[in-house]
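Incident review: delayed structure delivery

Summary: a single-chain prediction request sat in the queue longer than the usual turnaround. Root cause was a stuck worker, restarted by the on-call engineer. No data loss occurred. The affected request and its eventual output are reproduced below so the record is complete for anyone auditing the incident later.

Affected input:
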Amino acid sequence: MPPLAGRIAGAGLAVAAAAIAVLAYLIHGDMARETALSREIQAIQDVKEGLDSLNEALHRLRFAAAVRPDGGLAHELVAVQADLEYLRAKSAEHPGMATALAALEPSVRLYADQAELLARSAMAPRDRPALEEAQDEAFRAVRRADARATAFVNARTNAQIALWAGREAYVRALVAGAIALLVGLAVSFRELLLRARRDAARIEQLAHYDSLTGLPNRSLLADRLDRLFAAARRGSAPLAVLLFDLDGFKAVNDSLGHAAGDALLAAVARRALECMRASDTVGRLGGDEFLVLLPDTEREGARVVAEKLLEAMRRPFDIRGEAVRVGASIGGAFLPGEAGDPEALVREADAALYASKRRGRNSYTPSGGPDGYPGR
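Output delivered after worker restart:
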């Protein structure tokens, strides 16, 4: 090899080696930052799950205080306390949420204390408006904290996307300077892009879908309901909402264990999807509670879907070789109707669901309508 060619080849190899070294350094730094962001996103997801659990506990407390104003609320109050303690522990793991969670606790505790006074018949009638205001503020505080957590997830997701975008830019530039190792670098670059897509899909799944059932979670359900509610309010289409939970789910958890309960919830999700059209949405709010969004659906169409759900839930589930039987209590709410916002529509469905339970469970009750459809 002529000296000049040797020097050129040596220089080319040196440039390639330097490019590879720089690439390795940048990739290592990006992976470390990406891992830190993923851990932070997971920590925020834990906080969001705790907030979902607290929201459910507050709903149960509100319902118990309404139907048992002079009865014991110990179980509901213990659940609220446990969720507050869980969120307090999680705030130490994610300092960015500490302020929002600290602001949440006084409102929730005030409502719990006033509900306890009501249960002990120690609340004067003139104090009932204060209880309702405390109740509303507690739910607002939970929503504010959840919005803060969602903002954190979105910010961290955008940071990861920026990492991937920057990585693509500098990898392309460095590959151009590493001609001698073009094939190896091209393969590495392809793997990086595949990983970026997988990570983006994983983050999307974490942010918007329930990890157990694969159904849309509370956040995605709220977004879809907002859009459907706005369309229905404009008069372009009717909307039906079904809220259902499982009758006998606690007994399955107690007798067969939580792993069997999780398997049952996944099986319930699959059966519920079989009852839906492609345009319908069924999602998990948490626990054994599911929300169904039925666009372009009147009361009669909702009743047909509810009957399908009741029939599907009545059939035995094969859970790890055990024939498990549960039922479903379903409540329905509709637009056009009285609801002034999406949350009010869900509350109507929630009230109808509890009416189904009072009627003996395993039945469907529409809001503002007849007594409902009993299961056979």
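Verification: The longest strand covers residues 239-247.
Action items: add queue-age alerting; document worker restart procedure.
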